[in-house]
Each structure stands twice: as structure tokens, then as C-alpha cells.
Design a protein that fits this description.
Number of domains: 1
Shape: globular
Largest sheet: 7 strands, parallel
Structural class: alpha/beta
Number of strands: 7
CATH class: Alpha Beta
Strand order of the largest sheet: 3-2-1-4-5-6-7
Strand content: 15-25%
CATH architecture: 3-Layer(aba) Sandwich
């Protein structure tokens, strides 16, 4: 009998209607997790739930905006109500935001990116940790990026870089604060990945691919495999870590 890495675990995944979040939803369900999925696009999100159930998995969805505190609270309440607990949270929702020089950026554009990527991480953690403290165990994962961490400065990405670097600082603080509760907190740092955030021109895609030592960008399923590692007991002694899954961009960026 094959052992499932997330058997009897309950997970929240945000940004689950597409890309990395969607790939992680299928993988976590395949590995035995019962899942609460979150995103803004209702039809796409419900389609993921239906597909998981057709494959024999268990999933429910909640549509909303991760920038809203009530939504983060509601996700945890739904997990506990539907499945009885919360073991794992993959806080993956995010945006590239406004791509422009800081001198051209409106403060509202700055706030939109910071709130979507970083404030949402704080809000998720606030309620997810409370649920995990009850069982003195859990794994929190936050999708950050190589941008703002290992890469050189990338023009036009100040808000995105700041928000993703901020996630790493948040992860380190949370890991220190809640390790005594058996709660592990890590950041997942993908390289370029074939999602809606990837360049939409052949020239742009080639440029990004060439930043990587592997000379390609990742499939969402490849990043999901690393999320599974952080979610499971395979990483039981890992916390406060910025986990690069970047195709070598951190050693090859020029």
C-alpha cells in the first residue's frame, strides 16, 4: 500500500484557481489532504473542486479577496467546520502589480501590490496559526520569489520585490515565535514559472528563460512538488527557511 504524504491532513491553498496554487491543489489531494481552496475567480475555482472530487479527493472552495481580513478568518473557519482542523496552509495568492519606475508609481499602486502579496500573508498567518496552536503542530508556507532575494535589482519591480522580500522577514519572525508550538513556517521561492505572470511575448519569455541556469522556466507542477515537501513531514526539521526552487537563477543572474 502506497503511503500518502498528507494522509489525514487538512490544507488551505490560496490562489488555487490557476498556476502554482492549482497544481498544488491537485498534488496535495492526490497525497491524501482534504483541502480548502481560495481564489477570486469563482468558476475557475469551482472547476478545480469538481476535478479533485472526480479524482476521488476532498475539497471545498471559498471565493474572496486575500486582502480582506474577514476572508482569511473565513477560510480557517471553513477548514475547521468542514474537516475538523487545519494542518497546512499554502499562502500562494499574489500579483506582479504595477511594473514601472518608483518615480512614476502612484501610492495606490504601491499599496495594492504590498497588500495583495504581504499584508495578505500576515492576515493568513494570524488566523491559521490560531487553529494550528490547538493541536501544537502545523506547516505554514508562503510563496515568495527569487526577486528581492537572490537576484540582482530588476528595474520596474520595486513594489513586487519589496513585498516578496517582506514575506521572508515575516516567515523568519513567525518561525521564531511559534516554533515552540510545533508550527513550522517556510517561504517557497520559485524561479520563473509558466503561469499568468510569465512574459506574454516570445522575446520576454526568452529573456527570462536565459536568466536561469537550466535555460527554461518551471512548470507549475514542479513548484508544487517543493510545496509538498515543505507541507509534509519530509521537511519536519525545516523552519524559517527561504527555499529556492529557481532553476539556478540565483547563481546565474546577470
Amino acid at each position: 500500500m502506497t503511503v500518502k504524504l498528507l494522509d489525514k491532513k487538512v490544507a488551505i491553498i490560496t490562489g488555487a484557481s490557476s498556476g502554482i496554487g492549482k497544481a498544488a491543489a491537485f498534488l496535495f489531494a492526490e497525497q491524501g489532504a482534504e483541502i480548502v481552496l481560495a481564489a477570486r475567480r469563482e468558476k475557475d475555482l469551482n472547476d478545480v473542486v469538481v476535478q479533485i472530487e472526480e479524482l476521488g479527493g476532498k475539497a471545498v472552495a471559498l471565493v474572496g479577496d486575500v486582502k480582506e481580513e474577514s476572508f482569511s478568518k473565513g477560510l480557517v473557519e471553513l477548514a475547521v467546520q468542514k474537516f475538523g482542523k487545519l494542518d497546512i496552509a499554502l499562502n500562494n495568492a499574489g500579483t506582479l502589480g504595477a511594473l514601472m519606475p518608483v518615480t512614476d508609481m502612484a501610492v495606490d499602486e504601491w499599496h495594492e501590490t504590498i497588500n495583495t502579496n504581504l499584508t495578505s500573508a500576515f492576515l493568513g498567518a494570524k488566523y491559521q496559526i490560531q487553529a494550528m496552536q490547538k493541536q501544537k503542530a502545523g506547516s505554514l508556507i508562503f510563496t515568495s520569489s527569487f526577486v528581492g532575494y537572490s537576484a540582482g535589482g530588476m528595474p520596474g519591480m520595486a513594489a513586487y520585490a519589496a513585498s516578496k522580500a517582506g514575506i521572508i522577514g515575516l516567515v523568519q519572525a513567525l518561525a521564531s515565535e511559534y516554533g515552540h508550538n510545533g508550527i513550522r513556517v517556510n517561504a517557497l521561492l520559485p524561479g520563473g514559472t509558466d503561469t499568468a505572470m510569465a512574459p506574454d511575448t516570445a522575446e520576454g519569455r526568452t529573456y527570462v528563460e536565459n536568466l536561469h541556469a537550466l535555460k527554461r522556466i518551471a512548470r507549475p507542477e514542479e513548484i508544487a512538488q517543493s510545496a509538498l515537501y515543505l507541507a509534509s513531514d519530509m521537511s519536519s526539521f525545516m523552519t524559517g527557511h527561504a527555499h529556492l526552487v529557481d532553476g539556478g537563477v540565483s547563481i546565474h543572474f546577470a
